[in-house]
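User: Second chain of the day. Same drill as before.
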Amino acid sequence: MMITCFGKARISGKFRKRDSSSSSPPRNWTSKDDNTEEEGSKIIFFGGKNHSFDLDDLLSSSAQVLGKGAFGTTYKVTMDDMSAVVVKRLKEVVVGRREFEQQMEMIGMIRHENVAELKAYYFSKDDKLAVYSYYTQGSLFQMLHGNRGTYDRVPLSWDARLRIATGAARGLAKIHEGNNGRFIHGNIKSSNIFLDSQGHGCIGDIGLTTIMRSLPQRTCLSSGYHAPEITDTRRSTQSSDVYSFGVVLLELLTGASPAITEAEHSGENMDLASWIRNVVAKDWTGEVFDMEIVSESGVEDEMVEMLQIGLACVGVKQQERPHIAQVVKLIQDIRSTE
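Assistant: Same format as last time:
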């Protein structure tokens, strides 16, 4: 299906399907004079031809905004048959069609139960889209931080957190195997980790950083997820992925946001990793754990083990951090989570 694309107007309720026969096309619609530039613009699917939707289905289906981030807006799109996918409209793509397609193809080759599946992608002059599996359980960020302090809050148990950590670690290890062992995720954080039907962590938003505009230095500094070296270079590595994953482990343990805040006791502004290092150095380790899980019996030793793994991952020096394969083994050794 050729030259059909999403407009840049704000979407509300539905992806509007455009009429290409209109004599007065809406703004940003591909005109006849632009057809040569848009030649080959079609939705590309992975996994053969057994897909259950096409671009027209996406355009005419109801859409709900799930979030807006540095790389674009994410929608939940529900088809006529009630199946759902996630469509990410990428707004800061800085590469041409060929490089974009090459990166999407590499992402599409990564197939693992703990990696969110890239179902399709689309490239045109006005729009670049990535279509992923939809997870009904939501993201780890929502599970950890949603409805905190309210009556209807459902706490995330330690067993659940351990299961999520194990799945996400396996997913990241699989991602790092891509591109002959050189693939980088580049944006590991709790909002990019989802829960499957079994409650295992699955990593999404894979590999977009290489085709997107670099995040501003201020964002890298304040998010709490980025390794120290990223602040200067703005270039992700597998080692910086491990650092970010370590922050997620610390987030799982504390229930706290990784972003820079005023640290309790010291009154200094520091990110989550720095705060935990500071607390542990003062032998106040017990104070870092989330109050929602500290009351669970028989799990304190396991939480301390996970804390040690997380701290190893967030080593200030790159050479101090373990390889993700080692992280997987260390987490699995805490307890069988199958």
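Residues 101 and 316 are 35 Å apart (CA to CA).

User: Great, on to the next one.
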